[in-house]
Amino acid sequence: MVILTHSILFLDFGAVGEQFLERHKNGKATVRIMGKFLQISAIAMLLAIGCSSIKTSKRLNGLPLCYHNRQFNLTFYLPASWRGYSMVSQEWTGYPGTERGPIIVLRNPRWKTNDLYQDIPIMVFTRKQWDEEEHGKFFPYAGGVISEMWHNDQYVFGNYSRYNAYDEVKGWKEAEDIIEQNCDGNKMQPLYPTP
Fold it and tell me: What would the pLDDT profile of 46-70 be if each residue is shown by its tens digit?
């Protein structure tokens, strides 16, 4: 057992530790051995504490499938009904100017050209692009609003308010709910809070 009290580390090794001390009561050698043991135990404890504080992405309830994009460090969860989904790469273009960026489109596995299901588009912006878009230096789309879903140190993930404007497309409400669940699971202060 390890107890930290007032910056002093106390270790209780139980019966095994007591037997060790009884067998090896020869002064300096015991102190050296116990000193090494204390150092190793302290290092192991600090590693365990440090490792438990690493931020890891957790699965969201009801969304067992995981899409992960290493390039943008984006993780997005989907329900079991989306097993067999596909990812389609698209690009947004800023007006005016030359700003461009990727759109990661997660496509429902039931989608067909003659039987459309709602896609989940995730717009990717660099932090610089997001700042410029927020300050009106360019607009990725005419009309509508880009909302921040969440961000990391390098990228902002956005969603266009009119992505599901055609409510005759099947699955639009399900896609909206999936996005909402992912946003709730990545709750953070937006870079530019809305008033």
Answer: 333 332 232 334 566 778 999 999 9
Q: What is the pTM of this model?
A: 0.66
Three-state DSSP at 160 gives strand
Burial class for 14, CB neighbours closer than 10 Å (0-12, 13-18, 19+): exposed
Distance of CA 192 to the CA centre of its chain: 19
Residue 136: CB atoms within 10 Å: 7
Total Cβ atoms within 10 A of residue 85:
18
Tokens matching residue 71: 């390039």
As given in the structure block, the two tokens for residue 72 are 């943008």
Q: What are phi and psi of 159, to 5 degrees?
A: -135, 130
Q: 4 has which bridge partners? A: 9
Angle at CA 111, nearest 5°, toward 108 and 112?
160
User: DSSP letter string over 14-63?
Assistant: HHHHHHHHHHT--THHHHHHHHHHHHHHHHHHHHHHHHHTS--PPPBTTB
Query: Tens digits of per-residue pLDDT, 149-195?
Result: 999 999 999 988 766 666 678 888 899 999 999 988 887 777 877 65
Residues 106 and 179 sit within 8 Å (Cβ to Cβ): no
